[in-house]
Amino acid sequence: MSTLISLLRGRRLLIFPALGLIWLLWRGVLPNFTPENTVLARQHALFAALEDGDDTKLLSMVSDDYLDDFKFNRDEFNLALKDCRSLFRTFGVEVKDESVELQGKEAAVTISCIARGQILNPMGDWVLAQSREVKKPYVFRFRKESIWGWGWRLVKVEQPDLKLPAGYKPGAVRDGSAINEALGKMMSP
Fold it and tell me: According to a count of CB atoms within 10 Å of the terminal CB, is the N or C end of the chain lower?
């Protein structure tokens, strides 16, 4: 009987550290996993994948239903980003302001940002100039496609001020045979 009582006393002492751990998780860790923070983390991961040129990671964050104002689908969006990235030795996005608006399983991340990078090609100058001329913020629309935190996927990017050269097709810049034609179209006003 005395061993049973001593065993129960030992377990009672474990309750306080367990309650302390639960309180620490509740106050310190869980607030970081709000939907707003999770969507912003996905947005930052999207920019990081773009900067690193990691197409696999980038595509994992884009919905199969992606369709933007330029009528680019998921694969064309990826090719357009590859075109853009190929113009630079190093490429990055400087975020100035960002906000998240949630509506159920959809989120809109509004971001003021500018492209930065070491240029490899004269078209890179054009891309940076376009980035500086954009006055309205970008709106990245996400949809929650699974129960997991990483289930937020990009479904659309909105930027009414962004201009593409006439006749631009995603992948044209990276295609060696089309580079001169694409250069001419992008450099002309």
Answer: C
CB neighbours of residue 25 within 10 Å: 10
The Cα 189–Cα 181 span in angstroms is: 14
**E strand or H helix at 41:** helix 35-52
The residue among 53, 84, 59, 82 whose CA lies nearest residue 154 is 59
Q: Which residue, 59, 119, 133, is CA-closest to 91?
A: 119
Going by C-beta distance under 8 Å and a sequence separation of 6 or more, which residues neighbour residue 6? none
Strand, helix or coil at 62?
Answer: strand
| C-alpha–C-alpha distance, residues 61 and 174, integer Å | 22
Q: Which residue has the tokens 């100035």?
A: 96
Question: How big is the chain by its Cα radius of gyration, in Å?
Answer: 24
Look up tokens 């400087």; give the residue.
94
Residue range 35-94, pLDDT digits in tens: 888 899 999 999 999 999 888 998 999 999 999 988 999 999 999 888 888 888 888 888
Q: Are strands 88-103 and 106-119 parallel, antiparallel or unpaired?
A: antiparallel
E strands present in the chain: 88-103, 106-119, 138-144, 152-158
